[in-house]
Design a protein that fits this description.
This protein is α/β, with parallel strands linked by helices and 279 residues long. The chain has one domain (2-277): Rossmann fold, CATH 3.40.50.1820. The chain has helices at 57-63, 67-73, 120-135, 150-161, 182-192, 204-209, 228-232, 234-244, 260-277; strands at 2-10, 13-21, 28-36, 44-50, 76-79, 138-147, 166-172, 217-222, 248-253. It has a 9-stranded mixed beta sheet, with helices on both faces. Helix 2 (67-73) runs parallel beside helix 9 (260-277). The relative contact order is 0.14. Bound molecules: the ligand N[C@@H](CCC(=O)N[C@@H](CSC=O)C(=O)NCC(=O)O)C(=O)O. Ligand LAXINWYW binds at residues 52-55, 59, 97, 148-150, 258-260. The ligand N[C@@H](CCC(=O)N[C@@H](CSC=O)C(=O)NCC(=O)O)C(=O)O binds next to loops.
Length: 279
């Protein structure tokens, strides 16, 4: 059952925030959904947005500036949380921002004590899609996915593993090869264990090397992003896509950093690109 936390009119649509008890995570989970006004009985295409480290649903909802574009394009926009939260949910032992709370990395953890609640893969690919398809006027044959940084990693891996579900995949400054960068090595090691073989299904570059494909892929990356060289490494994705024949559009955006100033500049553009593919 979904509890409505808040609703507000915006850009000729309704921005809602909702809470429910998740079977996947064993916790309450909060997410946001924007629904443009639509004809009675109509079903609309949906764009999923997966957020980055330290985020809840609220970061993109409050700073993403997507509502005007979604209203004009007739797109539903869904933004889940990035981790389980609440009593009994373990965090990074040192309280670091890049693991634990706000940093679920879109995997189902296998390592104690995280395996009980950190099941964001099941949550975003299974439980939440079923829930929102039931509660909102979504056309489930017209879905696409995007995300930022850790959420860009999530969008890429979910899109690559569900090519029939998602007509298009885009990302903002994504972690493209978590097995090869410090954020990813810490998270995949902590959640999945030290056997790197288990990491490949949660690594976009490895998935492409192993044969996964997407129909269309758009990535924007700021060249003034302080995480670019160490954590993001878009050249690894470009190289893998070129070898695999995946049509990647990678746009390096001069002067842009890693923040929501960057995301909000280009999010409407991504939505228009998704809408083209969701017609
Ligand atoms: N310097 C920050 C690091 C956290 C950060 O930059 N988080 C990004 C996503 S990074 C990759 O997933 C973010 O989206 N933050 C939320 C926001 O509203 O900007 C720190 O130390 O916390």
């Amino acid at each position: 059952m979904i509890e409505t936390v808040s609703t507000a009119r915006a850009h000729g649509g309704t921005q809602g925030v909702y809470r429910h008890r998740s079977a996947a995570t064993g916790t309450d989970m909060t997410f946001s959904v924007f629904v443009p006004d639509h004809a009675p009985g109509a079903r609309l295409p949906v764009v999923w947005y997966l957020s980055g480290l330290t985020c809840t649903h609220a970061n993109v909802t409050e700073k993403g500036e997507y509502r005007r574009a979604c209203a004009e394009l007739g797109l539903i926009f869904v933004a889940p949380d990035t981790s389980p939260r609440g009593e009994g949910v373990p965090d990074d032992p040192a309280g670091a921002y890049d693991f634990g709370l706000g940093a679920g990395f879109y995997v189902d953890a296998t390592q104690p004590p995280f395996d009980r609640h950190y099941r964001l893969w099941s949550y975003v690919t299974d439980e939440l899609p079923a829930l929102v398809a039931e509660a909102f006027p979504i056309d489930t044959t017209r879905q696409s996915i995007t995300g930022h940084s850790m959420g860009g990693h999530g969008a890429l891996t979910v899109g690559l593993r569900f090519p029939e579900r998602f007509r298009a995949v885009s990302a903002f400054a994504p972690i493209v090869a978590p097995s090869q960068v410090p954020w990813g090595q810490k998270a995949l090691g902590g959640y999945l264990g030290e056997d790197c073989a288990a990491w490949r299904r949660h690594d976009a570059v490895a998935l492409i090397e192993d044969g996964a494909r997407v129909k269309a892929l758009l990535v924007d990356q700021g060249d003034a992003d302080s995480f670019l060289a160490e954590q993001l490494r878009p050249e690894l994705l470009a190289d893998a896509c070129e070898k695999a024949g995946i049509p990647l559009t990678l746009r390096m955006q001069p002067g842009y950093d890693h923040s929501y100033y960057f995301i909000s500049t280009f999010l409407a553009d991504h939505l228009a690109w998704h809408a083209e593919r969701l017609r």
